[in-house]
């Protein structure tokens, strides 16, 4: 079906009649434990200036891993260790196909796009003095210019895990001399940030210094299963995080001092956090401790007072005594560093996917301490929380509202940009094109974000879907798919196909939420209880049940998926 014909369906009452019918034929209820008050659909819209975006990352989509003098990253090194491992060598080939990707965004009505710049594509060794890869500069200029030509604003991440391998080899990466404020890694990241501001900042007004430093610190330098695979679980993550925070502050001040007056942009950082909910009332303090060790580790210094959370410092000081150490494994910032770090965020970037149940596990001494045991908590999941393809991703929509409220209260009511949120499917044959569980995920999570905005007065300014495309999912390779668009990784041309979720998200953007009386909201109302694995009758105390209703729809599952999909593709 042509784009024009598809738009016609979506813009009229036919949208409900066709799309709802199709979805009802294949729906799988995805969420349990419905609470009538907490989980009710909120009708309304986001503020008129609300930002809708989708996101990707350089190593996950670009490919062209060694083209035109690009240097190797630590992820190139990891991926090439095993001949049977998936790699990002080609990925989605967005290095060549970025104009087509931009057209996908335009068709969805997106006005913003979050992507990352590959440090080794700009500076092959990570150091400017060793030379600039002009082809990398050309590529990002072309990408930015094409976005703006299509009325899409770039939101640029400077570091999304692909550290130049040379910096890891020469200096130990983010482990480099974590005790001073003049270490080479801080200076080198500052040089890289300055170069990007100079070359792209006239058009880029949203900068994110680091994406999910928790991942780089703990998985990269602590337990070491992510690149650069440094295994030092007692201290490595704390050293790396310390350096990342100082590097962020360096990049922020460079923009503030040298570019803000002329470019008038914003600089922030994106932090990830799983919300921690107490399993019992007795676990309430443990749940807060969990969030402080997760989010507060980075947010407290940047958005509060330049230093780590008090509960983190006191916990680690106690553990130092138990371990017979003279100093804590958690480094200390100098008074000058605290002043430099505090307030270095024009906005609060948040990546959130899931929630965990927290139990208190304090305070038994541990023979081999590490970050996970340092928190003195246990984590699990409620039995009625459904799981996505990713083993860690449980669907708990209300968790994002709680987390947004926590950020508002804890960090002085900052402007919050949700920079990632999404759900994975398995890679399978036939491909999941009617990705109903992803539609339900976006429906429920965005409604919780709207509750935070409209009911709790949280300053949520943006929502970003992860991801625009199926892509290279790190250690999971291509076995998990988060995309709004399917990518055929067996096709040398990496053909993209819109999934049903892209149609849903297009309507969500067009309606800016769930306006009262709209055809889109009527569709959502009809889907709401199915997505929550219940029925209106059950919610209101009548007879019947979700399993009975679902079984009726299962009679129709023999209808070929692609015939149904053709109604909206």
From TrEMBL:
The keyword Lyase is annotated on this UniProt entry: no
Active site residues according to the UniProt entry: 420 (nucleophile)
InterPro entries to which the protein is assigned, alphabetical: GH, GH_1_N_CS, Glyco_hydro_1, Glyco_hydro_1_AS
Protein keywords: Glycoprotein, Glycosidase, Hydrolase, Membrane, Transmembrane, Transmembrane helix
UniProt GO MF annotations: hydrolase activity, hydrolyzing O-glycosyl compounds
Segments traversing the membrane: 12-34
GO biological process, one term: carbohydrate metabolic process
Known EC number: 3.2.1.21
Keyword field contains Glycoprotein: yes
The protein's assembly and partners: Homodimer.
Stated family: Belongs to the glycosyl hydrolase 1 family.
Name of the protein this chain belongs to: beta-glucosidase
Taxonomic source organism: Branchiostoma lanceolatum
Gene (UniProt): LCT
